[in-house]
Amino acid sequence: MALIVKKFGGSSVATPEKIKNVAKRILSEKAPDDRIVMVVSAMGDTTDDLIALAEQVADTPYQYAREMDMLMTTGEQVSIALLTMAFRSMGQPAISLTGAMAGMKTDSAHTKGRIIGIVPARVHQELDKGNIVVIAGFQGTDPAGNPVTLGRGGSDTSAVAIAGAIGADTCEIYTDVDGIYSADPRIARGARRMREITYNEMLEMARLGAGVMQPRSVEMGQLYKIPIHVRSTFTTEPGTIIREEYTVEEKSFIIRGVTHDEHVSKVAVLGVANVPGVAHEIFSALADANIDVDMIVQSLRSAESNITDMIFTVASIDAPEAKQVVERIADKINASSVLIDNDVAKVSIVGAGMLGSPGIAARMFGALSRTKINIEIISTSEISISCLIKGGSVKEAVNVIHDEFFPDAH
């Protein structure tokens, strides 16, 4: 007997026919004693369609963040109800639960909430009745009972968190790709599928743009020690397992993957004094607005003037608000101007093997220089190196870097 959480994304449940196919697949693979919890996203492009609806009644609908959450949580409710109906029409007892009904508790950061706890009593009750429990991903409720969505990739986070809370044996993430690759296979020639990857490496890849997993979902897996199996909705082949340590021989690769993120913007705060407290003013104001900052560089214009420029990156969706936040404190920090550049992208390499391997950064920079791609900002961690480049160079950059570290891939 196994307790399994299975998450299906929007492309997997995009049409009524696909929903029925998901139900058939689950029933065909289910052992008699298996207890199954499903976590489901909104159908296809439903979330984008709901955002487009909001934009037709308000120019900047995200300023009404609570109402955006009220709107967007309806998408998952459609898919969980339809999937439950599909199961029941096939003779399988099932019940649908919203995030609130499943006990998903969040903070009050509308449109990008964080899970603060799960009380899965109702989930256990329904499993004990013999039901497949179908839960709406991407959503929970704050202490006041307001709906809160979990941001991009939030359904993955919901699934892994629920798996941890109910003590599941594994969490399977079904998507439109058949695992995790050394680079986006839609962009990189010869991208190779990994059989396994560690939580730390996957977390870094997800944080740096590997869209197949959301960083917080990997954090949840690591927290609860839940193996995450990323696999395809459309085949029965095994995919990639994310776990604490390798159990197969994949350690020979110094670099595990090349990632890219085109959903970034560069913010330049120009002409600020190079004195203590300025960086604190800028980044504490951004933190108060719940805006995550990634790459940061401070460049001194000249030693004589003691004037500096503060440059950093944020998610593109946060760029307009970031600009407003900094402009509000511009007089306080004596900034001459605040500029936004949306024509940028981030390319990164990730791998625990780079620790103790000199020359990795030089090889990455050399690959970019050979194709005349300029690097605007560089940032590093123990297991990653990231470069900010012009947005139009992403495909070429990913390929030349991938060819450098995976020369036998194609």
Automatic annotation (TrEMBL):
Keywords: Amino-acid biosynthesis, ATP-binding, Diaminopimelate biosynthesis, Kinase, Lysine biosynthesis, Nucleotide-binding, Repeat, Transferase. Gene3D superfamilies: Acetylglutamate kinase-like, VC0802-like. Substrate binds at residues 47, 76. One of its GO terms (biological process) is homoserine biosynthetic process. Residues 267-343, 349-410 form the ACT domain. Its EC number is 2.7.2.4. GO terms for molecular function: aspartate kinase activity; ATP binding. NCBIfam families: asp_kin_monofn, asp_kinases, PRK06635.1-2, PRK06635.1-4. Belongs to the aspartokinase family. This is Aspartokinase. It comes from Selenomonas artemidis F0399.
